[in-house]
Amino acid sequence: MKIAYVASEVFPYAKTGGLGDVAGALPIELSKLGHEVKVFMPKYNTFGEAEYGLHYEWDIGSIPIRVDGHVYQVHVHTAMLPDSNVEIFFVDCPHYFHRFRIYTTDWDEDERFILFSKGVIEILQRIAWAPDIIHCNDWQTGMLPIHLKENYGWDKLFDKTATVFTIHNVAYQGIFSKEAFEKAEIKYEHYQTGGLGEYYGNVNFLKTAILVSDAVNTVSETYAKELLTEEYGAGMQIFLASRKDDFFGILNGIDYNVWNPETDRFIPYNFTCENLSDKIKNKKTLLERLGIPYNENVPLIGIISRLVDQKGLDIFVYGINQLMELDAQWIVLGSGLQKYEDLFQQIAVRYPEKISVYLGFNNELSHMIEAAADIFLMPSRFEPCGLNQMYSLRYGTVPVVRKTGGLADTVQDWNEFLEQGKETGTGYSFVEYSSHALLLSVQRAIHDFHLKDVWKKIQLNGMKKDFSWQKSAEKYIQIYNHAIRKRNG
Ligand code: ADP
User: Fold this and answer.
1) CATH class for domain 2-253+470-488?
2) Do domains 2-253+470-488 and 273-466 have the same CATH topology?
3) Is the CB of 258 inside a 6 Å radius of any atom of ligand 1?
4) Residue 39 · residue 168 · CB < 8 Å
5) Which of 102, 178, 331, 338 stands the most exposed, by the fewest C-beta atoms within 10 Å?
6) Looking at ligand 1, which atom is closest to the CA of residue 389?
């Protein structure tokens, strides 16, 4: 099967969250299953061309692409995704992609990704490569399926091409004023009231993709069910319900080449299930580096997160006094909303011996925290899949999570399973979204941390779980086949 995988961020070139990790791993896994995969992303100026061995595509040269009546010359660079035979194409348009951040709140954010969507299709035309599937991800690629169908429907190259759209987070929908569709040159009827893209007088890229793509999925089974409800659907539940025969949930995998305590190059002491006792050396090293007193009997609790409301930081901050009274130490790595950055800074000043806060994005430190911490906290209000709890499980760092979305699908509560006579739990979870429920679960974890045999059992249960991409990639192939059948009757 020929698969074009399209995303606005791909690790290692650009990453702000889980999408980057997924887009850097799933295409490689699909190619290992014997499929021909090409990846497409914008060429941001946040990463260097030499650094990643990008080549300018002379054969393609310059492609004129029109957005809002202006023609931009787009150039193309290529490279191979690390350690793979998957080619990646970079859509290079400095006017749109040379900004301080990869996502912006600039007035032309819609234009940036309209250009990207058109750019991908035009590259496919230039290289005369007819994919069976174009797999789009999140609202930034939401215009591609409708463009393919309507603006490029004349091109025989795409006669059989089906589209699949993955929702990595329904909270980000790409809502713009209705001029966005004019800029994209999408037919007027689609942004009239009740049209494919119309949403309360604006246009909504996510809605358009949900309604137009041949198949739609999200990144865990529980989140797929949640998205059909008013509480979690963020307005998309009606449109998803209208696609319920074509809507699926597939759990993300994790890339064990990158996230593996046995080989992780960012941690000073590698370890496995067999020499789990070496894990603690990472904790000692990290605490020494941070200038926090080390005590092997005091659990270290890690948080790595975008600092946004979704991640449950309000219930964490609300319960901060009681949490800081616990006999535990904390390390927080995150960046995001100013209000949370300020709050965490204040907390760090108030409890210098208890908590260390690093504000910013730091890949190396994120690996170090996974290796060093005893417990990992993810109290998300909602969580489409979540990767960090899966990394934690692999690193023997016991997760405490709110039971929602992908967290519910990947973490089994130790006590809940114990009540059923099973010692198969891998962490702790709570249902009620409150500081109190969070506190109780952290207390349960700390209690068991001191029961050395129990703790080791929980750690090993988690470390032995298999979240490799292969299983998920096979499920994506099933969805691709569904989409192809749908497209071609
Ligand atoms: P989301 O995509 O909602 O941010 P995920 O758990 O799916 O959440 O993925 C987050 C990814 O981003 C993980 O790989 C995590 O380690 C990483 N990450 C988040 N914040 C930071 C940060 N401040 N520094 C380094 N890595 C981070």
Assistant:
1) alpha beta
2) yes
3) no
4) no
5) 338
6) 6
Residue 15 CA: which ligand 1 atom is closest? 12
Does residue 366's CB lie within 6 angstroms of at least one atom of ligand 1? Answer: yes
Reported pTM: 0.94
Q: Give the E-state strand segments of 290-421 in sequence order.
A: 300-307, 329-336, 355-359, 375-378, 398-402
Question: How many C-alpha atoms does 391 have within 13 Å on its Cβ side?
Answer: 24
- Cα 19 to middle of ligand 1, angstroms: 9
CB of 306 closer than 6 A to ligand 1?
Answer: yes
pLDDT tens per residue, range 311-363:
999 999 999 999 999 999 999 999 999 999 999 999 999 999 899 999 999 99
Probe target for ligand 1 pocket from 305, 310, 364, with the most ligand atoms within 8 Å of CB: 305
What is the distance between the alpha carbons of residues 26 and 38, in angstroms, rounded to a whole number?
11
Q: Is 333 in the pocket of ligand 1 (CB under 6 A)?
A: yes
Chain segment 355-408, per-residue pLDDT in tens: 999 999 999 999 999 999 999 999 999 999 999 999 999 999 999 999 999 999
Task: Pull the structure tokens for residue 211.
Answer: 């309604």
Domain segments of the chain as ranges: 2-253+470-488, 273-466
- For CA atoms 15, 17, 19, 23, give the dihedral sign: positive
- The CATH architecture of the domain made up of 273-466 is 3-Layer(aba) Sandwich (3.40)
Q: How far is the CA of 18 from the centre of ligand 1 (A)?
A: 6
Which stretches of 33-79 are DSSP H helices?
A: none
Q: Is the CB of 46 under 6 A from ligand 1?
A: no
CA distances from 313 to 143, 388, 434, 469 (A): 33, 16, 11, 29
What tokens does 347 get? 């907390």
Q: Backbone phi, then psi, for 471, in 5-degree steps?
A: -60, -45
- State whether the beta carbon of 388 lies less than 6 angstroms from ligand 1: yes
CA-to-CA separations, 215 to 6, 76, 109, 313, in angstroms, rounded: 15, 28, 26, 34
CB 132 within 8 A of CB 2: yes
Ligand 1 centroid from CA 189, angstroms? 39
E strand segments, 286-423: 300-307, 329-336, 355-359, 375-378, 398-402
H/E stretch holding 217 reads strand 215-218
Q: Which atom of ligand 1 is nearest to the CA of 306?
A: 20
Q: Which atom of ligand 1 is nearest to the CA of 383?
A: 3
